[in-house]
Amino acid sequence: MEELAIFGGKPVRENKIFYGRQYIDQADVDAVAAVMTSDYITCGPKVKELEQHLCELTHAKYAVVVCNGTAALHLAALAAGFGEGDEVIVSSITFAASSNCVLYAGAKPVFADIDPETYNIDPASIRKLITPRTKAIVAVDFTGQAVELDEIREICKEHDLILIEDAAHAIGTKYKGQPVGSLADMTCFSFHPVKTVTGGEGGAITTNDEKLYRHLMRLRTHGITRDPEEMVHPTDALWYNEQVELGFNYRMTDFQAALLLSQLKKLPAFEQRRKEIHKRYNEAFDKMPELILQKEIPESDTTWHLYVLHLNLENLNCDRRQFFDALYAENTCPQVHYLPVYWHSYYEKLGYQKGLCPNAEKYYNEVMSIPLYYGLTDDDVEDVIHAVKKVVAYYTKLK
Ligand SMILES: *Cc1c(COP(=O)(O)O)cnc(C)c1O
Fold first, then answer.
1. Cβ(312)–Cβ(291) under 8 Å?
2. How far is CA 318 from CA 70, 185, 313, 314, in A?
3. Could you tell me the distance, in angstroms and rounded to a whole number, from the CA of residue 192 to the centre of ligand 1?
4. What is the location of CATH 3.90.1150.10 in the chain?
C-alpha cells in the first residue's frame, strides 16, 4: 500500500489544489479594462445590461444587482418585511449569511433539518416548525441542486409564507426545466470567486413582483427615491430626491458588472465542465462501501457548485478530521460545507442549542467538499480520485 503523505509518504501531487477557484481569461480582463476609462465606473450601463442579462437567463421579470450575495439576502429580508416577532425557517446546513439576513432584519431564524440523502432543507422538517409567527422560508439550493420547490411552494401557499431562495450555489440550475431565479418570491445569487461565475464580489436578487422590485431598488440606494409617486413631498424640481426609508449603499461597480457579463458568456462551458467533473467523481466513487453518493432528485438539472465527499464511517477506521487531514496532505485540499449554522458561537450565545437538527449534525461530521471548478484539468481530477482512494485504502475496515 502507498504510504500516506501525512505519515511521510510522497503526496499524490506537488502543488496544492483547493475546492474552488475562479476562472478569468483575457476577454474578462479586456471587458473590465474597457469600463475603467468609460464615463461610468459605477451604476452605469453595464449594471443595467447585467440586470437585463440575468432576467433573460433566469426568466425572471426583474433583477437587482448588488455588491455581494449577503447584501442580496439582506435586501430580500427587508423587502419581505421581516421584523420583530417574525420567525423565518432557514436551512441548517448553509453559509451563515442565509440566516444572518433574518437577524439583520430583527426577526428570528428557526432552523430546519436537512434531508439526509439530498442534504437540502427537508420539507417535512419545515412543516413541523410552522407557527402563527412564521413569516417566510429561506431555502438554499445546496451544492447547486434545486430544493424541492413544488412541495416548498405548496407549504408557502398553505400558510401564506414568503419564499426566498438562496441560489448562491445554483446559477444555471433548472428545476423541471425552469431556470432557478423565477421560481421563488425572491431568489438571491452570489458572485464570489468560488461560485460558478464571479465579479470579484457581487450579488443579485431576481423576482417577478414589481412591488418587491421597486422596493429592492430603493433599498439598494439609501432608501432614496427619484420617483414622485413614492415621495411624501413630491415636486417637479429636477434636483430633488427624497429619502423615504432607511436603506444602504449596496451598489455594484460597472467594472464588476462588465466582468460578470463576460463571465456569463462562459456559463454554458462552466456548467458543462462542472457536470463532467461531478460525473467523473460519481463514477469513481460509486459502489465504494466507504463512501456515500449524494442523492440527485430528477427534477433538478444541476449546475454543480460543490462535490460532497460523504464518508461512510461505519466502514472506515478514522473520523472525518483524520480523513480530511490525510487528504489535505496529499495536496488535494478539501473544505467542509458547512458547520450547522446554529453551532457558531454567536448563535450559541443567542440561545440555540446542539441537537436541534440531528441529520444536519450527523452530516457535518461525515463530509468534506473536494475540488470542483472549471479550471481543473483531467489530470487534476484523476489526482483527486487517486488521493481519495489512497486515503480510503489506508483507513478501510474492509481489508
Ligand atoms: C456565498 C454564499 C452566500 C454569500 O454570498 P457573498 O457574495 O459571499 O456575500 C450566501 N449563501 C450561500 C449559500 C453562499 O454559498
1. yes
2. 36, 44, 7, 9
3. 7
4. 5-20+267-398
Condensed to tens digits (0 to 9), the pLDDT of residues 136-181 reads 999 999 999 999 999 999 999 999 999 999 999 999 999 999 999 9
Q: Is the CB of residue 73 less than 8 Å from the CB of residue 98? A: yes
**pLDDT tens-digit readout, 194-208:** 999 999 999 999 999
Close Cβ partners of 29 (under 8 Å, ≥ 6 residues apart): none
Name the catalytic one among 195, 265, 266, 354. Answer: 195
Which CATH topology does 5-20+267-398 take? Aspartate Aminotransferase, domain 1 (3.90.1150)
Pocket test for ligand 1, best of 104, 166, 186 (most atoms within 8 A of CB): 166
Provide the grid cell at 128: 413541523
Its CATH architecture, for the domain 26-265, is: 3-Layer(aba) Sandwich (3.40)
Partners of residue 117 on adjacent β-strands: none
